[in-house]
Specification:
By secondary structure, the protein is α+β, with helices and mostly antiparallel strands. The protein is built from 4 helices and 29 strands. It folds into 4 domains: 104 residues, no CATH class; 117 residues, Sandwich (Immunoglobulin-like); 112 residues, no CATH class; 90 residues, Immunoglobulin-like (Sandwich). The protein is globular and about 80 Å long.
Length: 481
């Protein structure tokens, strides 16, 4: 064999080997797409819907008491005061479907209970409560929405995660539930197929020539099939192909009812081998993580508005577990220095791919950064938008003019991103007067001399950026009358 023929044969063999290596590596690639914030938000929406049911029950019970002088002793007495039986069923319990009428209601399957001894004359006495959530309504009609579930309910604290996989990979869905769930427990995985129902309805509008118009309605629905033998907290699909494309969920049941996980979807594509190693897709996955983190922080802040979030270890759910559900959410796929562990045992919240920055409230500075990636310098802002900052300092938002009375405090803030450490030099009337390690300038006991024009220069090892100028005005309260 000549040298040219040898090289040609070697190139052909090398090409075949390369293709085989690509296929082999593709079979091992699984890319997670955690939507933890969405799952927690759905749990919150269910809790709010439950609180609304209690308001309706409380209103009906008050009308009943006005007519009879006492609260009802059983829900059957409220059939003339409630428009339908649906408010008697908590949306978190998947053990039953909403009945079409009172005749279809199972009176032994109520998700709410009337508290004996409630007195119409005592508005703070508890009237009705949910058997699943901690929500209740009192005799005065005031409902209380509380975080968490009653002890014993099989609440999901970690939902299965969407996964993209190459053909031949192993896809693994797992669910975790609260530790105090009443035993015994049963798990049943289900495969749910999405389909759409389309119909046309006529919308009456007498201002139109034809008296109205037709509207096409498209409604998403699911067909549900239980998976035989899949009765544990983990469901594994080996050697996956494109025909597994559907949605998967698990129903967890005990004597109290049935909880259902969020749907997870496997997407099987050969291109996932590239997505698992490509910087562009790393960036998209990082942005997804940041959006989920910011959503979770917003949910946490809604229940605990007086607790400023400064680190991830504060973000716990009602059970005391991390709201992130799975550690993968706190790790950027481009972070070569860190790998997400399988669970939260001995987890170091200070050693993740993301960090929470010093931040004002969303009302003060919606565009101020809340959390950023240590690798990409993508950041999630207070308004939940996600942007990109290079290593050079980048200002987020503008300095705002301030008006302060004599003797009060004035606070001027700037949001900035860039390669750490960042240095802030504050200027007054064009002259530097203060160096700081953060973007907040606080002037205490404001006097006449504090008024003027303020700006800040932010710098790091890569570059510098000058802010706009904000005006601090003095206002004498004595002359404001």
């Amino acid at each position: 064999m000549g040298e040219g023929q040898y090289l040609t044969a070697w190139k052909g063999l090398w090409l075949k080997m390369s293709l085989l290596l690509l296929v082999a590596s593709a079979q091992a690639e699984v890319v997670p797409w955690p939507l933890t914030g969405t799952a927690v938000a759905k749990d919150g929406a269910s809790r709010i819907a439950c609180a609304n049911n209690l308001h309706l029950i409380g209103y009906a019970a008050k009308r009943f008491a006005n007519d009879t002088g006492h609260f009802p002793s059983a829900f059957r007495e409220l059939t003339n005061y409630l428009e339908s039986p649906n408010p008697l069923l908590c949306p978190a319990n998947a053990a039953h479907s909403p009945p079409a009428s009172w005749a279809d209601l199972d009176w032994d399957a109520m998700d709410y209970e009337l508290v004996p001894g409630a007195n119409p004359a005592d508005p703070v006495s508890r009237l009705c409560q949910c058997k699943i959530h901690n929500n209740f309504v009192n005799a005065g009609g005031f409902g209380t929405e509380q975080d968490g579930y009653h002890a014993g309910w099989p609440a999901v604290i970690a939902h299965p995660v969407d996964e993209e996989a190459t053909p031949g990979s192993t896809v693994r869905f797992e669910v975790k539930i609260t530790a105090n769930a009443l035993q015994p427990l049963s798990f049943q995985w289900r495969r749910e197929h999405l389909y759409f129902v389309t119909n046309v309805s006529f919308i009456i509008n007498t201002n139109l020539y034809d008296g109205g118009f037709y509207r096409t309605n498209r409604e998403a629905r699911f067909t549900v099939a239980e998976l035989p033998g899949e009765t544990s907290a983990v469901y594994v699909m080996q050697n996956v192909t494109t025909n597994v494309y559907d949605y998967y969920s698990v129903a967890i049941s005990n004597a109290l009812g049935v909880a259902r996980s969020q749907r997870a979807r496997p997407l099987v594509l050969s291109v996932v081998a590239t997505r698992a190693t490509n910087d562009y897709w790393f960036g998209l996955r990082c942005q997804n993580n940041l959006r989920q983190i910011r959503l979770l922080a917003g949910i946490r802040g809604a229940f605990y508005p007086d607790q400023a979030i400064t680190n991830f270890s504060q973000m716990l759910n009602y059970e005391g577990s991390p709201m992130f559900e799975w550690p993968v959410l706190l790790f950027c796929p481009a972070d070569k220095a860190r790998t997400a562990p399988a669970d939260w045992n001995n987890f170091d919240f200070s050693n993740t791919s993301y960090e929470i920055l010093s931040h004002p409230s969303a009302e003060e500075h919606p565009a101020a950064p809340f959390c950023q990636c240590k690798v990409h310098h993508y950041y999630a802002a207070m308004d939940a938008s996600v942007s990109y900052a290079t290593n050079s300092p980048l200002l987020v938002g503008l300095l705002e003019d301030q008006t302060a009375t004599f003797g009060s405090d004035a606070v001027i803030r700037v949001g900035a991103l860039g390669l750490a450490p960042l240095t802030y030099v504050w200027y007054k009337n064009g002259q530097p007067f203060l160096s700081a390690t953060n973007g907040t300038l606080t002037l205490t006991n404001v006097a006449r001399a504090d008024g003027g024009l303020y700006s800040v220069l932010v710098s790091n090892a890569v570059g510098r950026v000058q802010s706009n100028t904000a005006t601090l005005r003095r206002w004498m309260a004595a002359f404001s009358r």
